[in-house]
Amino acid sequence: MLVAIDEFCKQLVRSNPAAMAEWLLGLSGVEDYAGLIAPGFNWQLIDTELAAETQRADSVILHAGTATKPNQLLHLEFQSRPDRQMPERMLEYWIRLWRLHSKPIHQVVLYLRKTNSPLVRVDELQVGETRHRYGVVRLWEQDPLPLLQNPALLPLATLARKAGRSTSADAEHLALVADRVAAIKNPVLQKEIAGGCHLLAGLGFSQELINAYFTMGILDDSVTYQAAVAEYTRRGRLEGERQGEQRGIQLGLNQGLNQGRNQGIQQEAQCLVLRLLPRRCGQLSHEQELAVRALPLEKLEALAEALLDFDGPEALDAWLAI
Fold first, then answer.
1. pLDDT tens readout for residues 33-49
2. How many whole angstroms separate alpha carbon 39 and alpha carbon 9?
3. 143: Cβ contacts below 8 Å, ≥ 6 apart
């Protein structure tokens, strides 16, 4: 699920680079950058592949610049959990981006899930005379008002609040976000935003409370969410093939190569289906999980399509019985 959230956040930036950039650059954590880049519509997403090793940044946005201000880059990393290696990663990203573009680079790590870990307060790498700084935004500490005022950023608004963690405060906050979603006139955009709110709210609220304001089935109609799942599936398949090839090389046999590749692909398909099924069927029983894991690749792919129509655990049992 965390991988799907990561992919959704990237899709969110792809769809709304200007809204995301102007919100982040206006925050107190990166306020020094706000005067350097004029707000406006001339933001565009650029390729995030940084090297031959296919290392990718989450999102990189280019500001086209003006007659008096040069082109500049905004590099974003979305994090659902603390990462002890983040300072080293940000320095490496900066170096690779500079080599590719030779433009000023502003970096921001956006932490999504509330945590008391001191790692989410680290905003620099300092080793000897080397010092690299970057912006850090802890979403749960941000004022939700700017996000509530921009429909494109409403999914992030679900997690942005300085209020207490009482049940009543949780309900009031989700109700406020749901009201803003309901006010969106365009039905297609409304489904997209509601699907994103449902997905990201899972990082901070109980499923029961989320379902009270955003129905589970709305994710099926969200093009952005489905694009995120498709991208996750594509990367999972590539990773499965890579793992399979490595296993085959180690065995030194063509038979081992094919077997390893197929096993890698099947493992990724199992992971994807087992992540999606609880959204349609609730918590799986031990017997249901074993039955899914025992399915061959062709059946797993068929189940990945069929589960979008499931409405409870009985639907899964009926499908498995076919």
1. 444 444 444 677 766 55
2. 22
3. 160, 162
Q: Are the C-beta atoms of residues 273 and 248 closer than 8 Å to each other?
A: no
Is 194 in contact with 180 (CB distance < 8 Å)?
A: no
* Greatest Cα-to-Cα distance within the chain, rounded to the nearest angstrom: 68
Q: What is the dihedral of CA 151, 77, 57, 105, to 10 degrees?
A: 90
What distance in Å separates the CA atoms of residue 217 and residue 195, rounded to the nearest whole number? 9
**What is the full DSSP assignment across 140-182?**
GGS-SHHHHT-GGGHHHHTT---S---HHHHHHHHHHHHHHHH
Cα 216 to its chain centre, rounded Å, is 18
Percent of residues, the chain, with pLDDT higher than 70: 70
Residues ≥6 apart with Cβ < 8 Å to 195:
214, 218, 219, 221, 222, 224, 225
Q: Name the pLDDT band for 244 (thresholds 50, 70, 90).
A: low
Whose CA is closest to 313, among 281, 290, 287?
281
Residue 37 CA to residue 34 CA, distance in Å, equals 6
**What 3-state class would DSSP assign to 56?**
strand
Contact of 29 with 136, CB cutoff 8 Å: yes
Give 80's DSSP letter: S
Place of tokens 């589970």: 216
The pLDDT assigned to 250 comes to: 54
**Looking up tokens 């499908």, which residue turns up?**
319
Residue 159's alpha-carbon distances to 165, 167, 209, 254, in angstroms, are: 11, 14, 14, 50
C-alpha–C-alpha distance, residues 93 and 57, integer Å: 7
Tell me which of 119-123, 252-256, 290-294 is least confident. Answer: 252-256
pTM, whole model, 2 decimals?
0.62
With a cut of 90, say whether residue 126 has pLDDT above it: yes
Average pLDDT value for residue range 52-78: 71
How many angstroms separate the CA atoms of 111 and 159, rounded?
10
Cα distance between residue 27 and residue 60, in whole Å: 18
